[in-house]
Design goal:
The chain has a four-stranded antiparallel beta sheet, with helices on one face. The N and C termini lie far apart (63 Å). It is α+β, with helices and mostly antiparallel strands and 260 residues long. Helix 2 crosses helix 8, helix 4 packs antiparallel against helix 6 and helix 5 packs across helix 8. It is elongated. The chain is built from nine helices and four strands. The longest helix has 31 residues.
Length: 260
């Protein structure tokens, strides 16, 4: 048991944990960006609000969510430890600095991680915490005509304080009542400073993933002449470009819409 602990307390063991937790977080990003894209549906928040309710009330998803929180904490703690270790091991800076983007990201993973951790704390307190425990989230009622498929949305005030969601059918109408997280999103992104911070955080995500995704595969020893270029392509264009752009588009679009 002591050898097991010694292995995972070593720099190599910590990098292994960082790789595994990092890849798990990458899978979460795919799901999360897919859910966020529902905000662009022209349905007054219906798809996104139903999605948000599902995430917070479906037991298996809730278990995965707590695993996600643990993964973020472990990833952040081990990143901090490795950054401190590397700093102590190399107190004197290099005389020559390679200015390529990939090298910059690899040398500044600690800074990028700190920005992302701050972003996660603010992001979760503004959305997740208020959605689960706050009282600043209103409710929406969606009435869908089952014969035409058209949906109308109105604000809804629940009778009981513990109301979360209801689905019923009345006079050929499907009536769905849920928390209106989409309105909270729209309200938050009327603040230009929040929008700017969000976009900066997405730049940090991009550079963090540019190095981190590829590094995780190298740490795990999954290096192959044939498949490594594929890993680099996915890490660069999908995780470091497409996903951050999709996330950054949300606050920008909502802010522009708020100006109209």
């Amino acid at each position: 048991m002591s050898e097991f602990k010694q292995t995972f307390n070593s720099s190599l063991g910590m990098k292994l944990i960082m790789a595994l937790t990092g890849l798990f977080l990458c899978t979460f990003l795919i799901v999360h960006v897919g859910g966020n894209l529902l905000l662009f549906c022209n349905d007054e928040g219906f798809s996104f609000n139903v999605y948000a309710n599902f995430l917070t009330h479906f037991p298996p998803i809730e278990v995965i969510a707590y695993l996600l929180y643990l993964t973020i904490a472990v990833h952040a703690v081990y990143a901090l430890i490795l950054t401190i270790k590397n700093s102590k091991a190399r107190p004197v800076k290099y005389a020559a600095v390679n200015k390529s983007p990939a090298t910059w990201s690899s040398k500044n993973m600690g800074l990028l991680g700190a920005i992302l951790f701050l972003f996660i704390v603010i992001h979760m307190s503004d959305f997740w915490f208020h959605y689960k425990y706050g009282h600043k989230i209103g409710f929406k009622e969606y009435r869908t005509d089952l014969s035409t498929g058209k949906t109308q949305a109105v604000d809804y005030v629940p009778v009981s304080a513990d109301f979360e969601k209801s689905v019923s059918t009345e006079n050929n109408y499907e009536i769905v009542r849920v928390k209106d997280l989409q309105a909270r999103v729209a309200s938050s992104f009327t603040n230009i400073y929040y929008v700017i911070f969000y976009v900066i955080a997405m730049f940090a995500v991009s550079f963090h993933l540019l190095h981190g995704f590829q590094s995780a595969f190298r740490t795990l020893g999954w290096v192959h002449r044939k498949y490594t270029p594929v890993v680099y392509f996915i890490g660069t264009w999908f995780f470091a470009v497409l996903i951050p752009l999709a996330f950054a588009a949300m606050p920008v679009v909502y802010y522009i819409q708020s100006l109209k």
